[in-house]
Amino acid sequence: MADHFDIVIVGNSAAGLQALRVLRKHDRARSILLVDREDRPAYSRVLTPYFIGGKTERENLFIVDQAFYRELGITTRFGRTATSLDVDGHTLTLDDGAEISFGQLLLAVGSEARPLAVQSGRVSVLRHLDDADRLARFLPGARAIAALGAGLVSLPLLSHAPAETEKHLIVGSNRIFSRLLDAESAQFLEERFVAAGLQLHKRDDIAELRDDGRLALTLNSGKNLTVDLLIVGKGVQPNTDLARRAGLAVGDGIRVDACCRAGHPHIYAAGDCAEGADFVTGEPTVQGNWLTAVEQGEVAALNMLGRDCRYEGSLKNNISEIFGTDLAVVGYCGDDAPAARVFCDGANGRYRKLFLDGQKRLLGAVLVGESNDAGVYYHLIKSRAPLPEAAHLSGTNRYAGLVRDW
């Protein structure tokens, strides 16, 4: 006989964790089960490069401890994977054969890193804590490392490697962060990273890889690299198999409406597995950042409680520190924005670019060298108000340098 819970949440990262908090803030009576494939409390993936690079201890990665779930009255089944979902029967089956019946279900199952089809202990993605543990063993003694793909996994990892380590970045496109930034902002960052010791190989890829104790890489350009570790950061793939097999609508992710419902009145999706509307473009997208996951987890939880909460849409919101440079990318920062304003102070390494629509409302912002006010820009975009003059300045309100409008 199946165990029954009023609410089942599959996934124990940003979306699932926020949903738990919101549900228990408003309701202490409903029975809640949390299922997750990892046998541990929730932790921060954002901090794993700092742990791998020896900048923080492993225990600092954990957001909550086991007591958190007990105090909220949450039943947990860690180390278990959901293998099948019966939408009509309101039943979830786990990999140990257990059947769970539910009143409402939240799929917060995240995404997986796209792997490289190579069998080597010196080739690794970074998505889960086990990946971080493996990389932490290899990185400190590496004389040279390479990363494939110029996103928010590869570059932070390279930047946290020891200063004396030779660092190579292999990029298939013509710039770093090609899905995140416009060309000008990317070029500004590339110059800073190269000056910090990064060796950048653009419009290139790995043609051949051999593991002879060290990794011998031959690139399409003909270059040969010998490294001790290869980090694969070629993007992620939302975990949609469970939803697809259950008959839920799936595009790049599990398709959700403004209530974060997944095409069923009692099934929701949130976080890196969910495909919902982009706030700026209105187009369906999997945003894949922590803040979006938190927001969607909260919206899903409130709707589970019958509060009819609507989500206006997600925004890019990525903040990192790479080769000693603070970086924040908020909202839409594409080359085709109707207008932009650039503020550059090369002497202090500060750069910011604001992207505007035809009514001079803020669409997005790239902040380099100082990112403490990223939240201000996030709220300016969400408010759809005309950009105030004060927002043209840096966080210090004393920005000097080149200013351009076009």
Question: Could you characterize the architecture of this molecule?
Answer:
Its cofactor is FAD. This protein is an alpha/beta fold. It folds into 3 domains: 176 residues, FAD/NAD(P)-binding domain (3-Layer(bba) Sandwich); 118 residues, FAD/NAD(P)-binding domain (3-Layer(bba) Sandwich); 80 residues, 2-Layer Sandwich (Enolase-like, domain 1). It is 20% helix and 32% strand. The strands form 6 sheets. Strands 1, 2, 3, 4, 5, 6, 18 and 19 form an 8-stranded mixed beta sheet that branches. The protein has a 6-stranded antiparallel beta sheet with strand order 22-23-26-25-24-27, sandwiched between helices. It has a 5-stranded parallel beta sheet with strand order 8-15-9-10-11. The longest helix has 15 residues. It is globular, with a radius of gyration of 22 Å. The termini are far apart. 43% of the residues are buried.
